[in-house]
Amino acid sequence: MSVCSHYIRRCALVTPCCEKTYPCRFCHDREENHELDRSSVEFIKCTQCSTIQEVSLHCTECGIRFGMYACLECRLFDDQDKEQFHCDKCGVCRVGGSENFFHCDNCEICLKISLIDSHKCRSESGKDRCPVCFEYVHTASEPSFVPSCGHLIHFKCYNLIQRFGHSSCPICMQSYNPPATRTVGNVNGNT
């Protein structure tokens, strides 16, 4: 099993889709030609004693806790404090502290609290794919932002197109002026 660059944890996921063991869903998705549906994972493997067991907070054999932060719904375990929180409406864990975000029911995504009265609300924009890398913004581990046009884009993708002289939204061509700031609550992963 490979070393995970996304999380520090003491368990691995037993993936029902390909019947392999991976440290996390990002590691799985990088290696396989399909995405792991985290909610389908029923078993995990303790990395300390190798016991395969149903998803739980502690190992049934050696008693170790699988992660300081644990969300059984998301099958997420992490020993690094990223101010993780689970958003019931998004159905995923996010990083950055729940007190710093609100869930926009129309956009269907968590946004920075500073945008509560000023973001351009677009119905179901949380289901957008980044216009540069095409990864879903809703479940991405990459931080994203909402420019004035309301089309979501990852920061790394925004920086990439800026390096090539593009200063407008790839979808609607509206100018990215003023520069964007992080406003979307990224899924628990790399921060």
List the helices and strands and how they pair.
Layout: E1 11-15, E2 20-22, H1 25-31, E3 43-46, E4 52-54, E5 69-71, E6 76-78, E7 85-87, E8 92-94, E9 101-104, E10 109-112, E11 144-145, E12 153-154, H2 155-163
Antiparallel strand pairs: 1-2, 1-3, 3-4, 5-6, 7-8, 9-10, 11-12
Along the chain, the helix and strand elements come as: EEHEEEEEEEEEEH
Class derived from helix and strand content: mainly beta
Low-confidence sequence ranges: none
Sheet with most strands: strand arrangement? 2-1-3-4
Strand content: 15-25%
Mean pLDDT score, rounded? 87
Query: How many extended strands?
Result: 12
Which word captures the global form?
elongated
Rg over alpha carbons: 18 Å
Distance between the termini: 23 Å
Summarize the structure.
With 191 residues, this protein is mainly β. It contains two helices and twelve strands; from the N terminus they run E-E-H-E-E-E-E-E-E-E-E-E-E-H. It has helices at residues 25-31, 155-163; strands at residues 11-15, 20-22, 43-46, 52-54, 69-71, 76-78, 85-87, 92-94, 101-104, 109-112, 144-145, 153-154.
Which features would summarize this protein structure in a list?
191 residues, mainly beta, four-stranded antiparallel sheet, two-stranded antiparallel sheet
